[in-house]
Design goal:
mainly alpha; Tetracycline Repressor, domain 2; 2 domains
Length: 236
Amino acid sequence: MPPEKSTPAAAELIWLRPERTGRGPRPAHSRASIAEAAVALADAEGMAAVTMRRIAAELGAGTMSLYNYVPKKEQLLDLMLDAVCGEYRLPEQPSDDWRADLRLLAHQQLDILRRHPWVVTLIRTRPSLGPNSLLYTEFFLGVLRDAELTGSQKMEALAMLSGFICQFADWENATRAAAGSSAEWQRELVEYLTGVAMSGDYPQLAATLGAGSGPTDPAASFDRLLDKVITLLATP
């Protein structure tokens, strides 16, 4: 008696799973609509609000039915990340000015992170492998096509630029949070730092705080730091 054929396990990676088999009635939903609803929830209420139950309610669907489209939470995160990557507006081809091209990508990414603050965590913890992410990667590598860098160094440059932008977006969020803190907290912070500066234990910190420079313009800071990062990217 011939051995029974085993059924192949479904792919873990969402991009290897066919969205539909082609048999049966047309699906009532799609990965794109599920990702869109999930992104909207995350924007409005944070990632904690993103559950299949909430997404199903937004779509008017049964919770269990959505697992036919997206079986696992990790796969939903991948779809969400790729959905926001679709917000890039990439030129058809890189220009002859690679620095200008990288500035364009950087400003677009920062705008995306400002619209979707929760994306920072996903970028840091999950690889971007969806079709929109791959289009971005292809364009980025095209920008550096003539750079004297190895393939690994070009991928490092991609990660370095993205990491800098994520860090800057975090700094913006922290600055806004501090500005929204209570007056009492801010008063205590000034009092604490004044005491630290006057203690004599941290002379460099005291000198830096004493020098001052007035309020920092976030846009100017971003552009100034971005130029430094871009210079490093092209260094083998």
